[in-house]
Amino acid sequence: MTQQKTILRALAGETLPTPPIWMMRQAGRYLPEYKATRAQAGDFLSLCYNPELAAEVTLQPIRRYGFDAAILFADILLLPQALGADLWFVTGEGPRLSTITTADELAQLKPLDAIHDTLNPVYETVKILSQELPKETTLIGFAGAPWTVATYMIAGKGTPDQGPAHALLRENRPVFEGIIDRITDGTIAYLSKQIEAGAEVVKLFDSWAGSLADQDFIDFSVNPMQRIIAALKAAHPGIPVIAFPRGAGTRNVGMHAATGADCIALDDGVDAAWAAEHVQIHGCVQGNLKSSHMVTGGADLVAETRRICAAFSKGPHIFNLGHGITPDASPDNVQLMIDTVRGG
Ligand code: CP3
Q1: In which family does this protein belong, per the annotation (predicted)?
Q2: Burial class, 93, CB count within 10 angstroms (exposed 0-12 / middle 13-18 / buried 19+)
Q3: Which residues are catalytic?
Q4: How many helices (H) and strands (E) does the chain have?
Q5: Cα-to-centroid distance, 36 and ligand 1 (Å)
Q6: pLDDT tens, 119-158?
Q7: Which atom of ligand 1 is nearest to the CA of 327?
Q8: Which atom of ligand 1 lies at the shortest distance from residue 73's CA?
Q9: What does the DSSP 8-state code read for residue 128?
Q10: What value of ipTM does the predicted structure carry?
Q11: Range in 1-10, 253-262, 330-339 the model is least confident about
Q12: 95 lines ligand 1 (CB under 6 A)
């Protein structure tokens, strides 16, 4: 059957005259309508677990801009919470979790079949979205990759260098590996349910992959993602997967084959012309405009957008930012980026 949705066509390896486009964190605080719904929900987690309101904020950027994909509104830290970690968000600072660093704490995590009690509202959001999205819009589900999720579970918060997770890996490798394995199994179960509820693509965010060196990068970024992708594709044949090993740099070369992902999302640290030659030759790529252009706009935004589109024009490409859009971005700059991608 011929695939109609542009994102699915790009993920299947097709080179399109105009790349499909969506944006990481496209539902977020740069949009006044997001802030209004967020205020209605109360706090961020209440919004994540309210299917009607989570679906509403997912739809807002689709209504405003007509992006080619919607990404489920949720967070990578809902899975640790479902596994039994306490989770809360401190305004202006970010997430906080109860820490897991010992064999006892690992043993106290909930069994896998119990995670859905917490995560059911997320699947409900996916179901609402698969009914309400325009027929040309692709619905993307997601989870954090095990290493990135583990860095938050071990430190209890975001850390600039992921020091606590690296320390546990050195000091107690069995417990560290146990945490990675538990997250890997949980992610397979979580994403399978998202797919069953209607997600048409799933994305794995390994936001801190760049801090893993050498064999650790293979063992704890590449291999867990490979295991998740293989399990998902065995259970849901044909499900396309996007992997985002942020900070991987030249290690993005060969990543399609190593992970089994259909698309590699590129951060803004890799040059598009280089990536076209060394990464895109192996499959679809997504990226990689610097998010700061959404704040500064103007001629630089237009020139950079055109440069990236031109560099990736000879292969399958999904236009996106290199990382999430920031709260200080201007909604008008997002429109300018879209007009540039679609209008030349
Ligand atoms: O892309 C999307 O629009 C989908 C929804 C989404 C969110 N977080 C919503 C969110 C996705 C895919 C994420 C992923 C996520 N969450 C990552 C990986 C991607 C990345 O950015 O590297 C990480 C590391 C997290 C953990 C997390 N969640 C942090 C560190 C924070 C605080 C950031 C901040 O700026 O305050 C969050 C909160 C969060 N997740 C917000 C949103 C829209 C802001 C919450 C708010 O409304 O106050």
Answers
A1: Belongs to the uroporphyrinogen decarboxylase family.
A2: exposed
A3: 25, 29, 38, 75, 152
A4: 17, 9
A5: 17
A6: 999 999 999 999 999 999 999 999 999 999 999 999 999 9
A7: 35
A8: 5
A9: H
A10: 0.93
A11: 1-10
A12: yes
The strand pairing partners of 286, in sequence order, are: 265, 318
Q: Is the beta carbon of 80 within 6 A of some atom in ligand 1?
A: no
Any ligand 1 atom below 6 A from CB of 77: yes
**25 labeled part of a ligand binding site:** yes
215 is in an annotated binding site: no
Q: Is the CB of 157 under 6 A from ligand 1?
A: no
Q: Is 152 annotated as a binding residue?
A: yes
- DSSP run (H or E) holding 264: strand 263-265
CA distances from 118 to 18, 28, 82, 266, 302 (A): 40, 23, 5, 32, 43
Which protein residue has the closest C-alpha to ligand 1 atom 9? 75
Q: Tens digit of pLDDT for each residue in 205-222?
A: 999 999 999 999 999 999
Q: How far is the CA of 75 from the centre of ligand 1 (A)?
A: 6
pTM comes to 0.97
Domains identified in the chain and CATH numbers: 6-343 (3.20.20.210)
Pairing mode, strands 94-97 and 138-144:
unpaired
The owner of tokens 């790009």 is 10
Closest CA to 133 of 26, 56, 190: 56
**Rounded CA gap, 272 and 288, in Å?**
7
For residues 148 and 208, the answer to whether their CB atoms sit within 8 Å is: yes
Q: Which two tokens stand for residue 306?
A: 């055109």
